[in-house]
Design goal:
This protein is an alpha/beta fold. Helix content is 48%, strand content 18%. Strand 18 and strand 19 (538-552) form a beta hairpin.
């Protein structure tokens, strides 16, 4: 039988062995990250997103809008900040507002007017108004009864004098005593009248509220400064929850609504991002869609102005309005995920997207980028940037303690945090990454993608870099070594990663138990992956599968359990593939009932990557040939050909731990490049079993614990690796089994 492989195929597999050396060459010459120089241009510090960076520079030139679409962690927020920096350095002085926005009382208590004034001129106007009001308050005539008091006092004094003269004259002329008594009583009355006037004057001065109300009314007419460009100099406003209140502004609630104490609406007005900020960064466009603000945003983007209206349907502020427009010539920088983009395409026939494209661009963020020389060099730059960021975090957390108490105090305090003793000389200072460690980061980025690309979802990698830094610091290592990355990967797992680790341990124990209790006929170790929605990473795990073929009256395939449509279709394809072989070898027709059991796959199964494993298990049960349980297998079966599947790198990594007892795996030929990252910082060699090429990776130094990976083009290649049978032997045994089943059915019918 002719071989499925040719000479070029073997050369391609051998070329894979050159990958680590080629990667090191593309990485550039450096011993550790201390020798890495960062680009001066801030926008070039955002790695991988070259297309987005070019678009941002072009849009900045035209002051257009931007919509960045991509998964979390691809650098959308960083690019938005860089966009602001580009405009800040280039034309920031012309973009930044220079006029004060002032609110004046309107035509009635529910209306206001806006004006744009020079800040210094507005300061002078308000100062003059306040001075005039204060002068008016101080120059108000006080209530006074001084004339009445002086008149009563004069009469009182005259009567006292008359009383004294009458008393003196009474010694010479007795009737004068009568006049003295009358004038004495008169002086007493005038004394009481004088005191009465003084009391009335004091009471009126203390209770003179009428003049205060008049002054308050004048004070309420003073204009209110709603935005002073001298105090708010930031070009960009970051809006995480866009709504009418924080985008347009509104009117605050007034608790004083009675007794002539209500606050005028121009004093309760406040402005949103549209009126104050030249650039508006909407961090998550999905929120804007949920709150129904899209129609308002479209109108403002079109008209570049808007009326300020009350933000509530009832209560204070609902009836408040502005009489003239506010300016809103904003540059919109928005971010969203792909699910939001699908909604925007339908909403108003894509009106928002049309506005963006009219004066800007929709930027598709790369989730993965090609592994070329430029992108590989950016990995070292990215690691260096994260080291600098961590150094700033250390300075913020421990800088004051180090300055006041020294590193020894930091060590003692850190021992309280970690709950264990730390080595002498412990210092919370960053360590540079060794060259081999940067290669491990490149390996991780490659493993988290497919098709020979590097993952652009960097936020989860940030956590791994920091965790590795802490491992090196606690160990006292001068550099972050590859082993620190390995430790960080074990500890820094996403929710799905922790779940996958737990499931993997369970599946390993299950696999060992099945292997000890069965003859391995009909059993195969498939390979599956769990996708992390947060980090985008795939976590591999073994998937034990058991299949049976029983002679019956009809051709059926049963796959019980919670499996998806693609997995069900894959099971049907496997049935068709087996029937094709039976027809090919001229086996007599017999109906077969085929059963596929994904053992304890409680979370369900979806996808067609287990179709080769199902085929092997069914054929194994059909011809009663054991399957090597120390090898995993994955691939999508179409006829006899094995096609590529996703997550192969992670599937292989999931079974490479020597404690699992796995010795190798069979993968599709088309997935051969997914093995490249597994060769980084490892010993390996080319192998070949008959005509099937492969690579042997040694899991321990000294070429110990070999793990063999074979690249299969057809299912018969996998048969040879897992069951040790050639094509002719498989077909002969299938034909013999079919004849036996045919004879059995005939005897059964005759009986």
């Amino acid at each position: 039988m002719p071989s499925d492989y040719n000479e070029n195929d073997y050369l391609w597999i051998k070329e894979l062995l050159d990958y680590p050396a080629n990667l090191e060459q593309r990485l550039g010459q450096f011993d550790d990250t201390s020798q890495i120089k960062l680009p001066d241009d801030l926008i070039d510090r955002v790695i991988f997103q070259d297309r987005a960076k070019r678009a941002i520079r072009k849009i900045a030139q035209n002051k257009g809008h931007i919509l960045m679409v991509g998964r979390p962690g691809t650098g959308k927020s960083m690019l938005a900040n860089m966009f602001k920096e580009v405009l800040e350095k280039s034309i920031g002085d012309y973009l930044r507002p220079t006029e004060t926005i002032v609110a004046y009382p309107g035509k009635d208590r529910n209306h206001i007017r806006f004006a744009y004034e020079h800040p210094a001129k507005m300061d002078l106007i308000i100062s003059d108004l306040n001075t005039a009001i204060e002068t008016a308050r101080n120059n108000l005539d006080q209530f006074s009864l001084s004339d009445q008091i002086q008149s009563a006092r004069k009469v009182k004094i005259a009567l006292i004098i008359g009383t004294c003269l009458g008393a003196a004259g009474g010694f010479y002329f007795p009737p004068a005593f009568i006049a003295a008594g009358l004038t004495g009583m008169g002086s007493i009355f005038m004394y009481m009248q004088e005191n009465n006037h003084r009391a009335q004057e004091k009471i009126q001065r203390e209770n003179n509220a009428g003049t205060k109300n008049e002054v308050k009314h004048i004070q309420d007419m003073v204009p209110e400064v709603l935005h002073d460009p001298r105090k708010d100099k930031d070009l960009m406003a970051r809006v995480s929850e866009p709504s009418a209140r924080n985008m347009k502004g509104g009117f605050r609630h007034d608790p004083y609504q009675s007794g002539n104490l209500q606050t005028p609406c121009h004093l309760r007005a406040y402005l949103g991002a549209h009126a104050k900020s030249p650039i508006i960064y909407i961090d998550e466009l999905k929120t804007l869609v949920k709150v129904g603000y899209m129609a308002d945003l479209l109108e403002i983007m079109q008209n570049k102005e808007y009326m300020l209206e009350g933000g509530r349907s009832t209560g204070s502020g609902a009836a408040d309005r502005s009489e003239n427009h506010l300016k809103a010539n904003n540059i919109i920088v928005a971010c969203c995920n792909h699910d939001t983009l699908a909604y925007l395409q339908e909403e108003g026939d894509g009106a928002f997207l049309s506005r963006i494209e009219d004066k800007g661009e929709i930027i598709q963020m790369e989730s993965a980028v090609p592994e070329n020389e430029e992108n590989v060099k950016q990995i070292a730059q990215y690691v260096k940037q994260e080291i600098i960021n961590l150094a700033e975090e250390f300075e913020e957390a421990w800088g004051e303690v180090i300055e006041k108490e020294g590193y020894e105090s930091v060590r003692k305090r850190s021992e309280q945090i970690y709950g264990r003793s730390l080595p002498d000389g412990f210092k919370p200072t960053v360590r540079e990454f060794a060259r081999g460690t940067v290669l491990e980061i490149a390996k991780e980025l490659r493993c988290r993608s497919s098709d020979g690309k590097l993952s652009s979802i960097l936020r989860p990698i940030n956590g791994i870099i920091k965790a590795a830094e802490f491992e090196a610091i606690l160990e006292g290592s001068p550099l972050v070594e590859p082993r620190h990355i390995h430790q960080a990967l074990q500890e820094h797992l996403s929710l799905e990663g922790g779940l996958s680790k737990e499931i993997g341990e369970h599946k390993n124990n299950l696999k060992k138990y099945i292997g000890s209790m069965t003859d391995s006929i009909g059993y195969v170790v498939g390979l599956a992956v769990i996708h992390s929605k947060s980090s985008g990473q795939m976590y591999g795990q073994p998937l034990p599968i058991h299949c049976q073929i029983n002679v019956g009256t009809a051709d059926t395939v049963v796959a019980p359990g919670k499996i998806g449509d693609i997995a069900k279709a894959a099971a049907q394809n496997v049935r068709a593939s087996i029937k094709k072989v039976l027809n090919k070898i001229g086996a007599p027709y017999v109906g077969y009932e085929m059963y596929v059991d994904y053992i304890q796959a409680h979370g369900g199964v979806e996808g067609d990557s287990a179709s080769v494993a199902m085929d092997i298990a069914l054929v194994s049960d059909y011809i009663k040939q054991p399957v090597n349980q120390h090898y995993g297998v994955t691939g999508s079966l179409t006829g006899d050909i094995i096609l590529a599947v996703g997550g192969v790198t992670e599937k292989i990594r999931s079974i490479m731990d020597p404690s699992l007892g796995m010795e190798g795996a069979c993968i599709p030929w088309l997935n051969k490049y997914d093995i490249e990252p597994l060769l980084i910082n490892a010993d390996y060699e080319y192998i070949q079993k008959d005509e099937i090429p492969g690579i042997r990776i040694f899991r321990r130094r000294g070429q110990k614990d070999p793990f063999d990976i074979y690249f299969c083009k057809t299912k018969y290649n996998a048969y040879k690796i897992l069951m040790g049978l050639e094509l002719e032997a498989v077909e002969a045994r299938m034909a013999e089994r079919s004849k036996q089943d045919r004879a059995f059915m005939q005897n059964l019918n005759e009986a």
